[in-house]
Specification:
This protein is mostly helical and 176 residues long. It contains six helices and four strands; from the N terminus they run H-H-H-E-E-H-H-H-E-E. The protein has two domains: 97 residues, no CATH class; 65 residues, Beta-Lactamase (2-Layer Sandwich), CATH 3.30.450.
Amino acid sequence: MRSPQAFEIAGFSASNRNCSSAVGITLASAAAIAIIWLGERYVSEPAAKLADAATRLRAGDLSARAAVSPEAGEFAALADDFNAMAAALDERERALQASEGQHRAVFETAVDAMVVIDDRGLIQTINPAAADTFGYCKSDLIGKNVSMLTSEEHRTHHDGYIGNGSIRVSGWWRPG
């Protein structure tokens, strides 16, 4: 180990050593702060924005988008893909709602009686023509077995039709 005089002879005094140490610690601290800042700006913030947009989309907010700066590199590309997916989902949902509205309008205004049942024969919905034809209010039929609308002759066999996969649609028999 060198003596303090040896450092002074070599041109390094104790104050120079302390100054060098202080500069080294300052540079290391500045580098650590820069790394933390870069990590926050280019990783944590974009990831949080994507997570927030995904949470909102999952909750049903189809307008949710992730606003990530292009400087965020791969996160920006991921956000662009996420936003494209969200836009496509929003567009499909709007088209589905429009189609459902059109089908609902046809169903509700049809002059023929229409009864929709589930796989157990329970009435899910009816149109106004069916309510008029059978003489019931819609609310009196929802959840009831459709066999109540058939003649006694067919009523006893109706549940068997449903159980064996035979479905009677518009007066025609179809294999289920």
